[in-house]
Amino acid sequence: MGWVGVFCEDVKHKYIHHIYLFRVSLKFGIITCVAGFLGVSIGSESARRLRRKCAGADPLVCAFGLITCAPFLFFATIISRYHTLVTWVSIGP
User: Fold this and answer.
1) Which position has the higher pLDDT, 9 or 32?
2) How many angstroms separate the CA atoms of 52 and 26, rounded?
3) pLDDT band at 1 (very low <50, low <70, confident <90, very high)
4) Residue 31 and residue 37: Cα distance in Å, rounded?
5) How do residues 34-80 score in pLDDT, each as one tens digit?
6) What is the residue extent of each domain of the chain?
7) Which of 19, 42, 45, 87 has a CA-to-CA distance to 62 between 20 and 30 Å?
8) CA-CA distance, 13 to 40, in Å (whole number)?
9) Phi, psi values for residue 82, rounded to 5°
10) What separation in angstroms does the CA of 65 have from each of 23, 40, 49, 70, 82?
């Protein structure tokens, strides 16, 4: 399990005493899989279409994806102690 699952489990443990690490890991795994499939699909299609105009489209699409995901990850770490659902949604993209 990655650090995000442990982080969310720690935050929930502080505020909700009946938490199971398995459930946290399962939810995070499902969100990660769905986001991965969507990200790969959207990224590959974007790169394919952009490759017609620019030869180096693959690194540009990858850089755009990394730059756009950073604020969501930062927001998720800050808001996690107040709103668990918003944290899960922020980690997904």
Assistant:
1) 32
2) 40
3) very low
4) 10
5) 888 998 999 899 999 998 888 888 898 989 988 988 887 787 777 77
6) 20-91
7) 87
8) 33
9) -110, -40
10) 28, 10, 16, 9, 27
